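Hello forum,

I keep getting stuck at the same step: I have a sequence, I want structure tokens, and every attempt I make locally crashes halfway through. Rather than fight my setup again tonight, could one of you with a working pipeline run this one for me? It's a single chain of 269 residues.
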Amino acid sequence: MPTIPFTKMHGCGNDYIYVNAMQHPIANPQACAIKWSDRHKGIGSDGLVLIDKSPIPEADYSMRIFNADGSEAMMCGNASRCIGKYLYERAMTHKTEIRLLTLSGIKTLKLHLVGSSVETVTVDMGEPILENESQFVGNRGMSKGTFVSMGNPHYVIFTENIDQVGETGRILENHPAFPQRCNIEFAQVQPDGSIRTRVWERGSGITQACGTGACATAIAAYLTGRASRTSSIVMDGGTLHIEWRETDNHVYMAGPAEFVFDGEVEMAK
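Reply #2:
Ran it on my machine without issues. Output:
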């Protein structure tokens, strides 16, 4: 069975397997995502990310992302930050501003350097979509939530019990209100103004962090009068800083990206 090189990276604990598809194209990424993401029998990750050249001149590179269950995601903020670090520190680009094509459009990555290392990355996540502001009251005393799309769907619930993420998140991902399934966030405003958030990610289950989920949480907090346009979202794996700018209506996400290890893996059948 042929093998290909990969790099494992994480952004606030949201870990993915990264493959340079420009050198190592993958014909069956869905099967590979399922096999490699298994935390007991594979590499272990929240999914698989393919870095490729952009098919259009408006972007520098492209990203495809496959969840641990093989489903393809529209966008991932944590993965996009990792791609910025990967491209720069692996000398694939000298740019500190990179245009990344995703299934939810072109995202601009601004790299913040310390010496020759990428310390943090700020991602212009674009404008949120608030048209489908579906709200419903679930069982077990769950409060109303706010729907926000950041290129992928999120349902944010402010609650005193964020640890219901495993039990309730699993149910809500597949709720009839969300025909394409949904990412679910459980959030609680802290005394210092930060927002503690736990995530049930569509196709992956509980994850340590979710970039688009952090953005959706910050937007929901502002819309419901719980926070200003700038928020610190504290997730299981770390903190992301979100700004929803009034000047352009864009959401900006800043946070770290880290290498974990490199290796080689057999292709899935």
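The radius of gyration is 18 Å. If your local run keeps crashing, start a new thread with the error log.
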